[in-house]
Structure formats: C-alpha cells, structure tokens
Amino acid sequence: MAQAIVVRALGGPDVLKMEGITLQPPGPGEVQIRQAAIGLNFIDVYFRTGLYKSAEGLPFIPGKEGAGVVTAVGDNVSRFVVGDRVAYASADGAYASERNIEIAHLVKVPDGIPLETAGAMMLKGMTAQYLLNQTFKVGPETTLLFHAAAGGVGLIAGQWAKALGATVIGTAGSQDKIDLALAHGYDHVINYRTDNFVSQVKEITSGKGVDVVYDSVGRDTYPASLDCIKPRGLWVSFGNSSGPVDAFNIGVLAQKGSLFATRPTLFGYIATRPALEACANSLFDIVQSNKVRINVNQTYALADAAQAHADLEARKTSGTTALIP
Ligand code: NDP
C-alpha cells in the first residue's frame, strides 16, 4: 500500500498525518511513479493553513513537487516509458510514496542529476529561472535585491544572478544565513532583523537604489522594499512568508518613482509544454554547469512532514529541503 500525508483539517503542522492509501492504475494521459524525493515548499504551508485553497477541498494530499521513477503507464502515453527518471513542480498531491500524475507536469531528469536533488529543486529552481530571465532580464548592468537570500529560492537565485553578471544584494535573518548567502553568489547581505535594509541598500548603491527587488517575504518587507528601487524600477512580489501584503494601493507606485509592480507565479510561466521544457532545461543546464549548486540542506522522512513544516515556518531551514518517502 502507498503511504501519503493527508490533510483532513486546515491548521498547524500537526494536521499533516501519514495514512495508507490505495492507488488505482494510472488513467489515460497519466503515469504512476515511485517517488525518490518530494520537495518542501513554502506554498505547501499556504495550502495547509488555508491561505491558498486546495481545488479539491478537504481532504487533500499536499505538495506540488517531486521526482521518481515511472512504474506504470496509462493509455495514450507515448512520451514516457516504465523506468524513466522524471520530476515535476506543479502537480498537487506530491506528499506520497507513490502517485499517479498527468504527464503534462513531467519532465525527464538528466542522468547527471540525482533524483533526490531533482525532487527538491524543480519548483525553486524554475522559479529562480523565470524571475531572473523572464520577469526581468537580469544582466551585467543589473543591481538587484533578493529577500530571504539563504532560503530555498534565495540560494539558487543568488548563484544564478551572479552567473548572469549582476550585482546581487540579499537579506537574511541571522549571521549563519548571511555567511551562507555570501558563499552562494551574493555580493552584499543585510541582516533585515537587526538593520534597516533600505538605508543599507541606499549606501551600497550610492543612493541610486536597485533595478529590481524580489520580495517573497510580503507583509514584513512591504512597503520598505519599494524604497530600495530606483525610479521606474520593478517590484516583484512573489510570496508571503511573513503574511500577505494586504493594503496595496497602486498609487504608491507613482509616489515612489513611477515604479512597475508584478505579482508572478511559476505556474503562469510553465503552463504550456514548450514553456515547461524550456524552463526545466535552462535549470538542468545551469545545474550541470556547476554555476548553480543545489543545497539539499535538510532531509526529513515523509512521515515527519509536520516537523519539516514547523522548521520552515520557524525560519530554521536554509537552502532546499527534501522529504524522503
Ligand atoms: P524559504 O526557504 O525561502 O523559507 C522562507 C524564508 O523566509 C525563511 O527561511 C526566512 O528566512 C524568511 N522569512 C522572513 N520572514 C518570515 C516569517 N515571518 N516566517 C517565515 N519565514 C520568514 O522558502 P521557499 O524557498 O520555499 O520559498 C520562498 C518564498 O518564495 C516563499 O514566500 C514562497 O511562497 C515564494 N515562492 C513563490 C513562487 C512564485 O512563483 N510566486 C514559487 C516559489 C516560491 P530568514 O530567516 O533569512 O528571514
């Protein structure tokens, strides 16, 4: 019998409980996979608490990301065969030892990348890909600020932005995290729990401000993030780790220097097969070039998903985290 974490009521980490589940054979357009690793992502917290609503209501199996080996193939599937090593970042129901999955979500994992790494890097890595290469085209002329620099997305983004030639400023909540971020591409890292990051950014940029701020912290860094941006620069609000930005008045963009703002999500950038493959291949390429190293800094047994969520929310984790079935 397959094992899965099933959420039967919204709430704190303790609602994440392991159960045995009966898996049907894969349907048309689906394959069945045995999972080697499942990615822990902050979005899993939003679904657990109810900040984001699960399409299927309660109960649901959380998680969007994983990697494993194809064990059975449904009708009308020619792209994948039994034995393929595959990964995904956009399919609900990831917290399971085995699962069925629509092939629209799947890509093949290159031989050089372990499944344990792939399972924890797809969502965060493709997010770094689109943020730095599509939402804003980062290059040698770019100076950027990336909040939560030592987090899962943050450590990948720092290395990637450095590989693109940018000047990379980060924020982090402890000295250990600052040191980690400095070792992963960041030129400057500010402790935003003890220091005023706006004045520090102004100092680093000689008063000019940055071209783009990537803000996944949300409530605690808004509206200060806007004060770090140069006139006509871009505010990318892409997460809510401290809570959502509630009272956003579009007029603030005029007051702060004719700024641009966007609130993107990965799923809008990998919605078609060509877009998914381009984004995933770009990630695989940069990982295989060693310009971006994936730090799976925490692994937990899938049964300990509650502890993993508690640690993520308590800001105890850095880099990426894998749940192992
Ligand atoms: P992280 O590993 O970055 O963990 C979150 C980090 O945010 C913490 O480690 C902590 O770092 C920082 N943080 C600041 N304030 C708080 C707070 N009040 N509570 C908890 N953490 C806080 O998570 P992920 O890499 O999984 O995700 C990073 C962010 O990016 C999330 O907000 C997520 O929702 C978002 N995201 C958005 C995507 C999109 O396409 N829109 C896709 C993927 C992720 P520190 O201690 O240094 O402050």
Spell out the blueprint of helices and strands.
Layout (H helix, E strand, L loop, with lengths): L1 E6 L8 E6 L8 E10 L2 H8 L16 E8 L11 E4 L9 E5 L4 E2 L6 H21 L7 E4 L5 H12 L3 E6 L2 H8 L5 E4 L5 H8 L5 E6 L13 E9 L13 H5 L4 E3 L3 H4 L3 H16 L7 E6 L3 H9 L6 E5 L1
Parallel strand pairs: 8-9, 8-11, 9-10, 11-12, 12-13, 14-15
Antiparallel strand pairs: 1-2, 3-4, 3-6, 3-15, 4-5, 5-7
Helix pairs in contact: 2-3, 2-8
This protein binds NADPH dihydro-nicotinamide-adenine-dinucleotide phosphate (NDP).
The site of NADPH dihydro-nicotinamide-adenine-dinucleotide phosphate (NDP) has 30 residues, from helix 1, helix 2, helix 3 and helix 9.
Organism: Pararhizobium antarcticum
InterPro entries: ADH-like_C, ADH-like_N, ER, GroES-like_sf, NAD(P)-bd_dom_sf, QOR-like
Keywords: NADP, Oxidoreductase
Q: What does the model show?
A:
The chain has 325 residues and is an alpha/beta fold. The protein has 2 domains: 2-122 and 273-324, Medium-chain alcohol dehydrogenases, catalytic domain (Quinone Oxidoreductase, Chain A, domain 1, Alpha-Beta Complex); 140-263, Rossmann fold. Helix content is 28%, strand content 26%. The protein is built from 9 helices and 15 strands. It has helices at 42-49, 115-135, 152-163, 175-182, 197-204, 251-255, 266-269, 273-288, 305-313, and strands at 2-7, 16-21, 30-39, 66-73, 85-88, 98-102, 107-108, 143-146, 167-172, 188-191, 210-215, 229-237, 260-262, 296-301, 320-324. Bound molecules: NADPH dihydro-nicotinamide-adenine-dinucleotide phosphate. NADPH dihydro-nicotinamide-adenine-dinucleotide phosphate (NDP) binds next to helix 1, helix 2, helix 3 and helix 9.
